Amino acid sequence: MHSATVSMLLPAEKTVPFYESFLLQYSLVVSSNLIIFELVSNSTEEQIFRLFEEYHGQIDDHKKKNMLLTAMMIESNAPQTNEIRGLSLDKFFLSMAIDKKSAKFILSSFINTKEFLLIYAVFEGVVKAELMKSGILKDGKFLREKDIISNIALKLSEKKELFEEHLSARSPLGKIEDIECFWDFFTHFRHLFIHSGGYVTQKWLDQLTQKKNNIINTIKNFECPISACFLIDSINELELINGKMFYIGDRFSNIFRNLVVLIMESMYLVEEV
After folding, report:
1. How far apart are CA 27 and CA 4, in angstroms?
2. How far is CA 86 from CA 48, 52, 162, 172, in A?
3. Which of 130, 180, 126, 132 is nearest to 153 (CA)?
4. Exposure string over 133-142, b if 16+ CB within 10 A, otherwise e
5. pTM value?
6. Cβ-Cβ contacts under 8 Å for 138 (sequence gap 6 or more)
7. Which of 37, 127, 207, 222 could form a disulfide with 172 if both were Cys (CB 3.0 to 4.6 A apart)?
8. What is the DSSP letter of 245?
9. How far is CA 4 from the centre of its chain?
10. CB neighbours (10 Å) of residue 253?
11. How many percent of the chain have pLDDT more than 70?
């Protein structure tokens, strides 16, 4: 994230509510992550590992809570008070040793994961609200993740050429169909975290094969060979092993973040005309 672009086009005089709504929420997510990454960077491996160790094992938080309630003359007979409770990181430490992943790497990956899921959710929420406002999505109708880009295309139907002009001017992407291919690829990873907590399954891997082929074929049509090689290398280097956790690295996070920013900025520029 340190070498990535995170900024967004700041609004001009004309007000575009959906863009400003996204900009605010996006800015909070990204700036918070930048601060956390700065703190992580300034910490040593030993310090981070020690913090993980501190949260492993028995934690008497409910007993402490009960003591506070007693001091306030409030009785609590909750069974949690008499239980042995805590956090268990045995398998986590074992995985670190087997997979040779450092504590700092894993912590950074979880930060990237939270950003990925939050930006996805913010984008989905803002787009859904705008589609409802525009009458594209009727009240009470469910918007499936895979249909988000096609619904954006419906909203922009009369300004599709202008939208695609902004896309191609600002990135190697030139068509809404290109965006739809990228969106389908990243949505599959969102499902991985939502449905299996980030642990790769064989079924998920089998479904990924075609999506990966689609996105690589799309990238091969880019006019800029440098961008194409970088993106294809980034996709091929993803460490996806059945039964193992997928750790989101900076490249994955940066590509998705820039994709969403590109879509929102191009939508804004079309509205600004």
Report:
1. 15
2. 19, 13, 56, 49
3. 180
4. eeebbeeeee
5. 0.91
6. 132
7. 222
8. B
9. 15
10. 21
11. 95
Check: CB of residue 122 under 8 Å from CB of residue 264: no
CB 57 within 8 A of CB 124: no
The single-letter code of the amino acid at 84 is I
Residue carrying structure tokens 């469910």: 142
Nearest to 26 by CA among 96, 101, 123, 111: 123
CB count within 10 Å of CB 41 equals: 11
Contact criterion met (CB below 8 Å) for 231 and 208: no
HEC-encoded secondary structure of 31-44: HHHHHHHHHHHCCC
- pLDDT category at 79 given cuts 50, 70, 90 is confident
| Secondary structure (3-state) at 204 | helix
Strand locations in the chain (E): 57-58, 86-87
60: part of which helix (H) or strand (E)?
none
Contact 247, 239 (CB under 8 A): yes
Q: What three-state secondary structure class fits 231?
A: helix
Q: What is the pLDDT of residues 86-128, one digit of tens each?
A: 888 888 888 888 888 899 999 999 999 999 999 999 999 999 9
Tens of pLDDT, residues 261-271:
999 999 999 98
Burial class (CB in 10 A: 0-12, 13-18, 19+), 104: middle
